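re: ur question from earlier - yeah i can do the single chain one, its not a big deal. heres the input i used so u can compare w yours
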Amino acid sequence: MANTNIHQQKGNHKMKIAIIGGGAAGFFSAINAKANYPDSEVQIFEKSLKILSKVKISGGGRCNVTNGCKNVKTLSEGYPRGAAKLKKAFKVFDNKDTWKWFEERNVPLKTEPDNRVFPISNDSQSIIDCLLEQTRTLNIQIRMQTGINGIKAKDNKINLTLKGDKIEEFDKVIVATGGSPKRSGFDWLAELGHEIIDPSPSLFTFNMPNEPIIKLMGVVAENAAVSIQGTKLKSDGPLLITHWGMSGPAILKLSAFGARMLKERNYEFKAQVNWVNENNNELIYQKLNEISLEHNKKKISSVKPYKIRERLWLFLLEKRGLNKDKKWEELGKKGLNKIVNILSNDVYSVKGKTTFKEEFVTCGGISLESINFKTMESLSCPNLYFAGEVLDIDGITGGYNFQAAWTTAFIAGMLK
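and the output i got, formated as tokens:
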């Protein structure tokens, strides 16, 4: 699938390539550009003192390199924005190519039961060391604390203005600066004629300051379904109760797909939770009825349906006004229906959001209509390319954002 066999530039001119941004997309595009054009001079510009900082903290410090989806169709479903374009891009470089790339460079990977892919070392430093080793081997220069203050196209070249108004000229430039929480962070690129999609936070947890459920912090519902009242937004998967509200894959997925809509609502809405991820209330009733017949003399607190955690079960019973010491046989049809209702249609008021760990992800950025997605080259500024989260692409949690970075960086690095 992946093809790096690209001919060196014509003539004796030594091509100068600048990569703006020292994150995953920046390093990967630099490595691929140098591999494709061995005689070129490649430099990475990083405005801060830190490189690959998101790689370092991803996956709790283990680095969730990619997702183990079996095919491109399933992989592309993990992107609320950019899925259609990425589906084609994945035919050039997908998650299997990412796996192969790292394994060939002595970083063995593993797939966990939830399909997240990590280095076998369980340490993000393995990925960082690999990328740094490649830059050393390929003689790629890393310029720290060197921000770009201006960018201008001139005579088929690109001029970058550095600190102190110093101007350096490059043949090709790849922008891999990541997302920005504010639109103003993209002004320098808008000036070159690119359409900017307003940034919005994505991948966040729900704050529920007025909901008593937060006293259950740490409790997990293994398979819940969550929806947003008044919308078509739905998601399912594990749900984690936190000391501020709700998190876990079900919530994070919902926040990603609803990022713009939830921002418009100022993060105030009603979340509907189906604790057992069963849409057929009759089937839930049937299961509860079977329990009441089989365990009729037992207290409702002592027999939990659907493997619900005890603290959550007791909380839900109390919320529906059911005495935990009541026996199953004493519930009757009315009591059983009360439990059906709380299991399938529990409602919580959300007021605000919290960033998921330190993995700040935004949707928005350079509109995909502003670039040629086959090459990642700007349509308004020749010889300028984009890679990673600076584009209006974002994925759900599970390695999707890194995969989008590897793929777009690989294509940008072809410099076609």
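The chain is about 30% helix and 25% strand. not sure if urs matches, ping me
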